[in-house]
Amino acid sequence: MKISDFAELENKITNDANFSTIGHLHGKGEKRLVPINSEQDFQYAVLSETIAGFIIPMTILLPIDTEKGLLISPNPLKTALFIQKEIYQKSGESKKPTKIHPSASIHPTAIISENDVSIGKKVQIYEHVIIHEGSIIEDNSIIGPNTLIGSIPQSDDSDQSLKEYHLFGSVHIKQDVVIHANCCIEKPWFQDTTIIGKRCHIDNLVTIRQGAVVNDCSLITANSEIGEYVTIGKNCWIGLRATIHPGVNIGDSCYVTLGSRVTKNIGPGMVVKDNWTIKRERFKGIIT
């Protein structure tokens, strides 16, 4: 596809380019066209080898020379969602009815979308849970009261006009996961997946933003926020009220202390305190 294939858009194409998909700044898709809203994000995106082009507002200074596509738009996210909708309609794909295994226990106050939801064996869904389209919950998982699965990304929900667009991402909660009360697991705008790995434990009042991946056997404690497209390795412990910034990668067997704000990638086996990292083995007797 080329940006010019969507010439009916009332936007300015500064530089045409081929792209394969619409995606997020921190997404993993190759040759993606990405909406950008800030100069800081744009400077980060220009260096990415997997981004084919940008949709940017007029307020961002254009680069002097770039081979990547450039589309100027007053609302980059809305334009990206419009293009994605056009691609979806041309694909001929359709929604599938929700499937709930007979052994699953669903509280009568829970709200589950009629389409594109899959709930496995012996899953327990408690009161006032809301499960949106594009959600997969595998066997033996537990979803606590008042939790939202597959909600619209909260950072964007102030723009009411965005709610007319379909979210094309998904949420995949694997086997034996426990998610406690009042949590929010976001679904990506684009064709990515928010993943909670096997035997993970998500405590009360945790927010996991769109596109994040929490790998197997990790614990996210109460009041923590996992940013957009964060990757957390296996066997990690994320402390109370911790914040992991968007796009950060945390290696296996890491320990993030309570209240920490993690803004950079962390290698495996590290202790993180206020964005400082220390080899976990040095403190093994204290934290295990």
From TrEMBL:
Single GO term (MF): N-acyltransferase activity
Keyword Oxidoreductase: no
Alphabetical GO biological process terms: lipid A biosynthetic process
Entry superkingdom: Archaea
Pfam families the record matches: Hexapep, Hexapep_2
GO CC annotation: membrane
Keyword Transferase: yes
UniProtKB keywords: Transferase
Protein name as it appears in the record: Transferase hexapeptide repeat
Organism name: Methanospirillum hungatei JF-1 (strain ATCC 27890 / DSM 864 / NBRC 100397 / JF-1)
Lineage: Archaea, Methanobacteriati, Methanobacteriota, Stenosarchaea group, Methanomicrobia
